[in-house]
Amino acid sequence: MSEQLKQHRDQIDAIDEQVLKLVNERAKLARAIGSLKDDGVIYRPEREAQVLRRLQANNQGPLANEAVSNIFRAVMSNCRALEKELSIAFLGPLGTYSEEAALKQFGLGRSAIVCGSIDEVFRTVEAGQADYGVVPVENSTEGAVGLTLDLLLSSPLKICGEITLPIHHCLLSKQTDIANISHVFSHTQSLAQCHEWLNRIMPKVTREAVTSNARAAQMIHDLVSTDGTFAAAIASKRAAELFDLNILAENIEDDAKNTTRFLVLGSHEVAPSGQDRTSLVMTSKNIPGAMVQLLEPLSRHGVSMTKFESRPSKQGLWDYVFFVDIEGHQHDAKVKAALAECLERASFLKVLGSYPVAVI
Ligand SMILES: C=C(O[C@@H]1C=C(C(=O)O)C=C[C@H]1O)C(=O)O
Questions:
Q1: Which end of the chain is more exposed for a tag (fewer CB within 10 A), N or C?
Q2: Among residues 86, 168, 94, 162, which one has the least CA distance to residue 129?
Q3: What is the pLDDT of residues 47-103, one digit of tens each?
Q4: Is the C-alpha dihedral spanning 344, 346, 352, 358 positive or negative?
Q5: ipTM > 0.85?
Q6: Which residues lie in coiled coils (predicted)?
Q7: Is the CB–ligand 1 distance for residue 81 below 6 Å?
Q8: 78 alpha carbon to ligand 1 midpoint, in Å?
Q9: Final residue in a domain of this structure, among 152, 167, 182
Q10: Is the C-beta atom of 357 inside 6 A of ligand 1?
């Protein structure tokens, strides 16, 4: 070992001692804060977002802001676990992008409740069997996840946070050569996100939809018949590790910026973080121009709309409900004023939650 390398390693050891001491001091403070929370709400997404934003703003490098977030999310996850270990429900099996999103937001200092469907995630949190749930709500290529929107309409749960996750798909198989693959299994959304790649590289394969992409990877892993040797799954790199599959191709999504947005569902409201979003669901009176009328107070009060999505209401033919996201927190003065006016004009309006804008 060169003298210089040894010197650097000695310096790293000394720094690690300081880091260890400091993170334990931080942990003690978090534990003390935990015992001061008399409403029992341990997880404060607004505070966690503020911590990450401040650190990113002060970051001098060479670590990238995303790396800073990764490190401090892990620190906060473990500090939070000293206050209480949260239980988080998400769509399984292990290896789904929902699990990845839950890990990004909550880290490893939590217990995982693996659910078989998005409905089950809602029911588990509603029944108090999990503290929070993580569900996909929209994808940059494929648009809204209709089931999540439908469930939000009737659920008493509140949106406590959002997570944006870049989605990079891989082709996974027990095989080592793409030329041998005759069937590709994945979730419909993942198949759709890769359909140009599939058309180009594997035009003849049969595409089959299953409940999740991790389930597809698990199926390929479990197949013992000769059929299995010709099948592949579209899923994440993590699923390849979990289910011991070969990665035949990486980044096969048609759009390199392919991103899914997930929601954190819980049973409490979240305080303002300074950079928030509010999600609403509403219906307008069935008269011409009613929707424009309904949204007019938003623009008049200077509230920006970041999403507008319509879904059949399932109450009557051609009756729709509208899912609207706006910038700001429901307690911000201008949002409050605009919402009070919208409420007067709407036949139905429900605030699904105000929560911090996702931090990378
Ligand atoms: C320490 C707290 O509890 C939790 C842990 C946090 C942290 O480790 O910084 C931040 C917010 C909470 O989710 C707090 O509320 O300040």
A1: N
A2: 86
A3: 999 999 999 999 999 999 999 999 999 999 999 999 999 999 999 889 999 999 999
A4: negative
A5: yes
A6: none
A7: no
A8: 10
A9: 167
A10: no
Q: Are residues 111 and 52 in the same domain?
A: yes
Gap between the Cα atoms of 232 and 186, Å rounded = 9
Q: Do 34 and 12 reside in the same domain of the chain?
A: yes
106 within some domain: yes
Examine the domain organization and report whether 40 and 139 are in the same domain: yes
Q: Say yes or no: CB of residue 90 within 6 Å of ligand 1.
A: no
Residues 85 and 123 in one domain: yes
Residue 51 alpha carbon to ligand 1 centre in Å: 9
- Does 26 contact ligand 1 (Cβ within 6 A)? no
Predicted TM-score (pTM) of this structure: 0.93
Catalytic residue among 106, 122, 243, 262, which?
Answer: 262
**What atom in ligand 1 is closest to the CA of residue 79?**
8
Shared domain check, 132 and 36:
yes
Q: Is the CB–ligand 1 distance for residue 33 below 6 Å?
A: yes
Supply the range of the domain harboring residue 61: 3-167
Q: What are phi and psi of 173, to 5 degrees?
A: -160, 165
Q: Model confidence over 115-171: pLDDT tens digits?
A: 999 999 999 999 999 999 999 999 998 899 999 999 999 999 999 999 999 999 999
Nearest CA to ligand 1 atom 1: 30
Number of structural domains (the chain) is 3
Q: Which residues of 310-348 are buried (b: 16+ CB within 10 A; e: fewer)?
A: ebebeeeeeeebbbbbbbbbbebeebeebbeebbebbee
